[in-house]
Specification:
By secondary structure, this protein is of the alpha/beta class. Helix content is 22%, strand content 26%.
Length: 291
């Protein structure tokens, strides 16, 4: 997919934004991979904290990841000015390869039109040699819940049919209920069918955001990992703003929860070969649940 080059002004005196290639291919540099996973930026809302986003940008740029994944809710109300702000932040990443999908907030007020203007297709595929990333918009206009949709399953399976050693699926909404987040209304409506689709496609890792609570599971031979909100103080319980980093070394994968400028902790580690894993979610559970 070619680099986005927005030719026209937004009518508010802003210059067109140029730079980052959203959802493109790349060639590998060695056997290891680093993927930064951010979500729920919420530009434009009263709970958005610019300094948190600036810290995350600086920290991720220092990390020099091979790929950045943003799993939705770039905005709060889906307005054009919020998308402009989000685009400026994402353009400030030095990484040339960024996968972006919209979230439920981005689909408010016909915001998906602005998303397509500034970020391109709402469904995308990226291949990094041995890694395939398929990202799908799970949002519905002006609704908090979402779905993938039966018309998308065959396309997903087709994209994952290409040879790959590590298959990653990205969506905004949850595939599994998240502890400590109240009544569950935010898994995708067709979660059962999606799980069957992804398992049939031999997906290794599912990444999402939405509820602002990071967590991790193993579901048969597939791992499901959520991240929190990177730059909003719309926080549940005692969680803190954070993002995730996925480190791939050969057939071993580590996923870390990182707090901008305030350290990190591992959420889960697993083997792509044996599916053996250890997860470290007790602290998260303590932040959002009571005994």
């Amino acid at each position: 997919m070619p680099s986005l080059a927005i030719e026209n002004s937004d009518g508010l005196g802003h210059r067109p934004l140029r730079g980052t290639t959203y959802t493109s291919s790349m060639s590998g540099r060695d056997g290891s991979r680093t993927i930064a996973h951010i979500s729920d930026i919420h530009c434009g809302g009263p709970d958005f904290v610019p300094s948190l986003m600036e810290r995350a940008v600086a920290e991720i740029n220092e990390l020099e990841p091979d790929l950045i994944i943003c799993s939705g809710d770039l905005t709060t109300f889906g307005f054009k000015q919020e998308f402009l702000m989000a685009r400026e932040y994402l353009d400030s990443f030095h990484c040339e390869r960024i996968v972006v999908i919209p979230g439920n907030h981005d689909s408010r007020n016909v915001g998906y039109l602005h998303f397509e203007e500034f970020f391109g297709d709402r469904h995308s595929v990226l291949r990094l040699d041995e890694i395939t990333v398929v990202a799908v918009d799970s949002s519905e206009p002006d609704l908090d819940h979402g779905q993938i949709g039966r018309g998308r399953y065959a396309w997903i399976e087709e994209q994952f049919a290409h040879p790959a050693e590590f298959r990653i699926f990205v969506m905004h909404h949850h595939l599994l209920p998240v502890p400590g987040t109240g009544r569950e209304r935010n898994i995708v409506y067709d979660a059962g069918d999606v799980i069957e689709c992804l398992q049939g496609a031999q997906v290794d890792l599912v990444l999402s955001g939405h509820k602002h609570v990071p967590y991790a599971w193993r579901l048969e031979d597939m791992f499901v990992v959520n991240t929190g909100t990177v730059s909003s103080i719309r926080l549940r319980g005692n969680t803190r703003p954070c993002y995730n980093v996925v480190e791939v070394n050969g057939r071993h994968v580590d996923v870390w929860r990182k707090y901008p400028f305030h350290g990190s902790e591992r959420i889960i580690q697993f083997s792509l070969e044996t599916r053996a894993f250890e997860k470290y979610t007790a602290r998260i559970e303590g932040e959002v649940t009571t005994r």
